[in-house]
């Protein structure tokens, strides 16, 4: 009789099912996803090229925008091509190592994106509330340090995730009911109690997200307070428009990311199957990120003028 307590992974391959319940439509679903990916790559690369070529754009808001564009490129490239292989070529199998690498990139770069949102909020706070010291406070050196801190935070907090998964035995199933490797989807396949591991992952995600949200909200409360004190009505309208578009993007980003994470954690499968096809493109599709970059570029220019 086979031993009941397995300590080693019995196979080096997992199988991604795709979007549960919509397997027969994978070929058609792949078309808009491919279009989104092409627009995302072209849009974000264009932003990087324009900012690099125009020295007048080497300012904090555009430098943070470049960091966000790089993050978006990595996020989309770590998910979209593999998803298209699944949708169009039926490539369901993914090696355990590739699964862990994809999971690390998804979680760590999502945390980085949240951090760059916070950095942009800080930049807008300084630019509006203390404009005379904006250039002296946010120097290129400080911008580089802020960017490095965001990257190191994402790597430091999510490096333990693949290490924790390597230690687990997988003797239930190797089928992941998803289009990509996500921590909660993989950890549920282990045949041992993973309560502590799940709590760690949930605590890290909640801690990073809630802290960033709190300080972003605080920044914009202070910004709005300063905006209402502006003497010009036109300036107030432009500032409110900038804040409004940014807040909408923040709400979409954090609410959908939290929804996706929590549905994996608590296992609300029916709700997940109904909402995932609509929310997943909004959360992970870089078209929104490219559009956000263009809107932010235009609105910030208007606010400065």
From TrEMBL:
Protein keywords: G-protein coupled receptor, Membrane, Olfaction, Receptor, Sensory transduction, Transducer, Transmembrane, Transmembrane helix
Major location category of this protein: membrane
Top-level division of the source organism's lineage: Eukaryota
PROSITE patterns attached to this UniProt entry: G_PROTEIN_RECEP_F1_2 (PS50262)
GO CC aspect terms: plasma membrane
Subcellular location: Membrane
Coiled-coil intervals: none
Functional summary from the UniProt entry: Odorant receptor.
Membrane topology of the entry: Multi-pass membrane protein
Protein name: G-protein coupled receptors family 1 profile domain-containing protein
Gene Ontology molecular function: any one: olfactory receptor activity
Transmembrane segments: 25-50, 62-80, 100-122, 143-160, 204-231, 243-263
Domain (G-protein coupled receptors family 1 profile): residue spans on this chain: 43-254
InterPro entries hit by this protein: GPCR_Rhodpsn (IPR000276), GPCR_Rhodpsn_7TM (IPR017452), Olfact_rcpt (IPR000725), OR51/52/56-like (IPR050402)
Pfam family, one: 7tm_4
